[in-house]
Design brief:
Elements: H1 2-24, H2 31-45, H3 50-62, H4 64-67, H5 72-77, H6 79-84, H7 86-110, H8 115-121, H9 128-137, H10 142-167, H11 172-194, H12 196-225
Helix pairs in contact: 1-2, 1-3, 7-8, 7-11, 7-12, 9-10, 9-12, 10-11, 11-12
């Protein structure tokens, strides 16, 4: 009974936060930010342990794995865009992924984080299902990775449009690459608010960034962290 209760609680809070965000359109009402805060508040208010809560909520986490298959849909749907700007998109995504991984490693090394935290942070700019898989594969802690992925998405939603305005990005391709590569699903949702074309490119870049990072993260782990 408790398992079903916590599952319903999590889903209800998320959909409530999402509905509120569609009404207000303020980044601090994003379900990525608001839902975790509300869940923590409920757990603290009723003195519910995380283990008890996770007995139900963990099934939503498990659904992330089959949900990864759905990432193939943007690649198929927006194949004409990918084909037309293939070289530009691939180069930008590859460069962005390399910079992201190396930056996370460098910062972690500078502040002298332990190896487990470093490997947990490396996939922070990949969409959650794949990020957790990469983290597990290279010796990280998937739950820690998920936290950094969410933080990255929220920061990308906030800073992405601001960077676009500051640097005067007019191209929808450039906007989509920026948001999709750096802040995955959260960035893509913001890209869709800018225009459908920007959202399409962002969707493609999000998938390509996930695939690219999945391939190069273990290599960087083997050659730099070992």
């Amino acid at each position: 009974m408790l398992i079903l209760l916590f599952l319903i609680l999590t889903a209800s809070i998320y959909w409530g936060a999402k509905w509120w965000y569609t009404k207000k359109k303020k980044v601090y009402f994003s379900p990525l930010l608001l839902a975790p805060i509300l869940i923590i508040f409920v757990l603290a208010l009723f003195h519910i342990s995380y283990d008890s809560y996770n007995s139900g909520a963990k099934w939503l986490t498990k659904l992330l794995q089959p949900a990864t298959v759905a990432l193939a849909i943007p690649l198929y749907r927006y194949y004409p865009i990918l084909k037309k700007y293939l070289r530009e998109i691939l180069f930008s995504v590859l460069l962005g992924c390399m910079m992201s991984i190396l930056a996370s490693f460098s910062i972690s090394w500078l502040v002298q984080l332990n190896k487990t935290l470093v490997t947990s942070i490396i996939p922070y700019s990949i969409t959650t299902p794949i990020a957790m898989g990469v983290s597990s594969k290279i010796g990280g802690v998937p739950t820690i990775t998920a936290v950094f992925v969410i933080m990255t998405g929220i920061i990308g939603m906030i800073l992405g449009p601001w960077i676009i305005r500051i640097f005067g990005f007019k191209s929808e391709i450039a906007r989509g690459v920026l948001l999709g590569t750096s802040s995955h699903g959260a960035g893509t949702s913001k890209a869709l608010e800018l225009s459908s074309a920007t959202g399409a490119v962002s969707s493609v870049c999000m998938v390509l960034a996930a695939i690219t990072s999945f391939c190069i993260s273990p290599w960087i782990y083997m050659h730099i962290l070992h």
